[in-house]
Amino acid sequence: MSPDRVEQTAQDWFLRLTAGDMSAVELRRFREWREANPAHDAAFREVRALWNDLDPLEPAFAPAADQVMPHRIRPGISRTRAVAAIAALAACLLLVLASLPDLLIMIQADYRTARGEQATITLPDGSLAYLNTGSALDIRYTQTRREVAILGGEVWFDVIRDRGRPFSVLALGGSSTAVGTAYAVRDQDGIATVTVTEGTVRVAPDATDNTASTDHLVTAGQRIAYREDGSIGPMENVDATAAIAWRQGLLLLRERPFTEALEEIGRYYPGRILLLGDQTKLGTVTARLSLGQLDNGIDALAATHGLSVTRLAGYLVILH
User: Fold this and answer.
1) Which of 48, 56, 145, 241 is 20 to 30 A from 170 (CA-CA)?
2) Helix orientation angle between 3-19 and 79-98, rounded to the nearest 10 degrees
3) Cα dist. 110→136, 161, 192 in Å?
4) Partners of 34 in the beta sheet?
5) 15: which residues sit within 8 A by CB, 6+ positions away?
6) Could you report the per-residue pLDDT of 297-316, keeping only the tens digit for each?
7) The domain at 249-319 falls in which architecture?
8) Cβ-proximal residues to 119 (8 Å cutoff; 6+ apart), any chain
9) Residue ranges of the domains in the chain?
10) Where are the alpha helices (DSSP H) in the chain?
11) Distance of CA 37 to the CA centre of its chain
């Protein structure tokens, strides 16, 4: 079981215990799970410690008189308040992490977009760069070459033709080179993905290796991905229009696992999205969402998958 899965299971057990309605069989299963691995016990202790740390803040999370649940496991603690307390601490931690700027990117980037923000940049040669959410771009033009480096995020380029000066996008140690064409490069989670919407692009996963054997020609309607170690994935056919639907303010999801769909939505959402509960029972997502109305989209996805939505401080969204 992965560390993330262990943490999720510990949270689930804690919430069920605080609800006070577990049967003897469920209690035995909980003890067996906790004793099966030291990591399980450590994860549960950490979740329980989070609750204890929040005791002084308990009045702030108390429900209004007309919202108090009739069932309580003991005075002052309910399942609703347990969820709110844990979520509130998570929100505080996420706020702290989000407030720590990436100093390296701030120093290197010529242009940046924040989460949920997009921007159009005219490059020195007249080519256009469309920065998607949470992206950073460094311009490195010379008299003989046109180079830009993606320091994170996703950028779609509409390149002016200039055979004397090739246009290259650098990302994760590799390069994507074209003379005049249109394509997107995305740098996320240690993977660079190149999606061509017009023309042909030469992708080299190792920009320092000039041998032709390492190059891959990607044409319109295709994409390819590579890692920083130089490994490269298979060529895939894609709907190029759907791949850059974000330029029209849309997010298109097709048969995506629910957790992956939330991660993709999270790239554009100005706050944070937290999913609690058994993720294995959630199906796939096919949806067309407006980037300007993501809260409505989140509510719709939650409803179709039997989940409830709790929002805290306009920043944290909890699906449970």
Assistant:
1) 241
2) 150
3) 8, 23, 20
4) none
5) 79, 82, 83, 86, 276
6) 999 999 999 899 988 877 78
7) 3-Layer(bab) Sandwich (3.55)
8) 111, 113, 130, 131
9) 3-98, 103-243, 249-319
10) 3-19, 24-36, 38-53, 79-98, 103-108, 240-243, 258-268, 294-304
11) 30
Tokens, residue 262: 């939330």
Report d(CA 236, CA 210) in Å as an integer: 24
* Rounded Cα gap, residues 287 and 169, in angstroms: 31
| Other beta carbons less than 10 A from residue 57's beta carbon | 12
Here the tokens at position 44 are 């549960």
Do 163 and 190 contact (CB within 8 A), yes or no?
no
Measured between alpha carbons, how far is 267 from 262 in angstroms, rounded to an integer? 9
What architecture is domain 103-243? Sandwich (2.60)
User: Phi/psi of residue 125, each to 5°?
Assistant: -95, 0
Strand partners, 250: 290
* Beta pairing partners, 193: 186, 225
Alpha-carbon span 290 to 63, nearest angstrom: 33
Segment 53-82, tens digit of pLDDT? 444 444 443 444 443 333 333 344 445 555
